[in-house]
Amino acid sequence: MKRKKIGLFGGTFDPIHIGHLRLALELKQQLELDEMRLLPCHKPPHREAPQASSEQRAEMLRIALQDCSELQLDERELQRDRPSYTYDTLLELRAELGGEVSLVLCMGEDAFAGISSWYCWQELIHLAHIVVVARTGWSLPQNGDAANLLKAYQCDVNSLNDEVSGSIVLQAPRLLPVSGTEIRQQIHAGESAQFLVPDRVWQYIREQNLYR
Ligand code: ATP
């Protein structure tokens, strides 16, 4: 049986850039996902508040995805006026999509390294699979909670099809060395971030005078 697999890729997307977009698309293809959803968070619980508003970040995602039928925007976290806990999002998606769908939560090594600080982190693996991708400048955790979680649940990619949750899979898509922090710093310093974000997103950043 070929199980339906839905990929979830969360982030602040402050702003969305070609590193996120290319990664999401390659993961969708490599993992043969039926859908790949990008979920911007409203109030990130573990980091400083984003510089662009939730509405501006969502608008940049809408613009970026305009001509891309492979990736979808899921705005549910923006509609909650409280911190964006992945645990709440996964519970909601499970209730909506039912128990037969494979949920595939995708994140970079940087995000995975800090997973034990997430709300109800030990429950996440029972609600979804986790796919961890390499990130330039980072490596997999060698000890601590995240390393132990990886040891306990690491499986090969077939498990995404066999079960609806419960596996951690390491994946190595193409990596573009781009980060939101670098883009914000460049713009703040009066430099151009053209070509690191889609052209129309760059136009929007300038129109809205973002990250100055
Ligand atoms: P910041 O520099 O503000 O932290 P960021 O670009 O890392 O921004 P987020 O929107 O918080 O972006 O990241 C969302 C997810 O995307 C994280 O899991 C992160 O690991 C991953 N990610 C971001 N940029 C890249 C990239 N260039 N290559 C691979 N993964 C990335």
Q: How are the SSEs placed, and which strands pair?
A:
Elements: E1 5-11, H1 18-30, E2 35-40, H2 54-65, E3 71-73, H3 86-97, E4 102-108, H4 109-113, H5 121-127, E5 129-133, H6 145-153, H7 159-162, E6 168-171, H8 180-188, H9 199-207
Parallel strand pairs: 1-2, 1-4, 2-3, 4-5, 5-6
Helix pairs in contact: 2-9, 3-5
The protein binds adenosine-5'-triphosphate.
Residues 11-14, 19-20, 23, 107-108, 110-111, 133, 135, 175-176, 178-181 line the site of adenosine-5'-triphosphate.
Throw out a few tags for this protein.
single chain, 212 residues, alpha/beta, Rossmann fold, six-stranded parallel sheet, 6 strands, 38% helix, globular, binds adenosine-5'-triphosphate
Protein model, in words:
- This protein has helices spanning 18-30, 54-65, 86-97, 109-113, 121-127, 145-153, 159-162, 180-188, 199-207, and strands at residues 5-11, 35-40, 71-73, 102-108, 129-133, 168-171.
- It is α/β, with parallel strands linked by helices and 212 residues long.
- The chain has a single domain (5-178), classed as 3-Layer(aba) Sandwich (Rossmann fold), CATH 3.40.50.620.
- The longest helix is centred in the first third of the chain and has 13 residues, at 18-30.
- The structure holds adenosine-5'-triphosphate (ATP).
- The site of adenosine-5'-triphosphate has 19 residues, from helix 1, strand 4, helix 4 and helix 8.
Major β-sheet strand ordering: 3-2-1-4-5-6
CATH-defined superfamily: HUPs
CATH topological fold name: Rossmann fold
Major β-sheet, in short? 6 strands, parallel
Structural domain tally: 1
Structural class: alpha/beta
Radius of gyration: 17 Å
CATH architecture: 3-Layer(aba) Sandwich
